[in-house]
Write a structure and sequence with these properties.
The protein is α+β, with helices and mostly antiparallel strands. 23% of the residues lie in helices and 35% in strands. The chain contains four helices and 14 strands. The strands form four sheets. A four-stranded mixed sheet has the order 2-7-6-4, with no helix packed on it. α1 runs antiparallel to α3. The longest helix is centred in the N-terminal third of the chain and has 19 residues. It is globular. It starts with 5 loop residues before the first helix and ends in a 6-residue tail after the last strand.
Length: 243
Amino acid sequence: MNVLPPRQRLAHLLRSLSKHLPGQLDGLLENARFKDGAAALQRLADPAHVEKALARMSPEEAGWLGDLLTERWSWIADVQLDPEVAIVAPEELWLGMEPVHLPLTLAAVGLDEGFEALWEGAVLPGPPSSKATLLAKPPEGKAPEVARVRAQVRASVKGQRCVLIAQAQVALRRPSVVVSDDRRKLLAQDQSGRPAVGCRLELGPDVHLTGPGGLVELEVPAQPGVPLKLEGIPTGRIPGGKP
């Protein structure tokens, strides 16, 4: 079973597909009738093309497409997946004033049991292991920041030793909420002004989910002094009231 995160799983599937499917078709792609299909497979072999496409997909869309491609491939020939390993980590992490320690694990396909890794980057020091701890420090200033992690995985495939490299980066976001003068619109964003879309915004006991652009619109004005939290992190209070 492929246990890679959705985007990594789809990228791995596309690499394996572009490598193995032409041979499985036994020269069929050389026929002029399949010119467009052959060209599509060549594009899938281009890492830059795949990376650009994946950047536009949500994890849900990548997961759906991965399932669909696996099913369609199985109709034609046996699905052949190359050995692969990936770091299981969130795409983004909201931080308050203190650093956060987050467990990281490795997901693998086609490896024998008992692999381990040397971890580098934004992780706590430790011996070789299949697990590590991300050290995420709150962003300073207004620039976008990421925590980068790299794992050099020492493993074996059908008894043959190999080394694989897994990399991941986690966007580090410090929350803020801008309140309109009439206290009916709240704009959730991070330190660089990037909108916080689909995030939990708490106004006292009330919880809202931010919409497109990180916006929450209230039917009635929020009460002055009500505390605000974005993804559980305090961001201040609703302004207004007595000076």
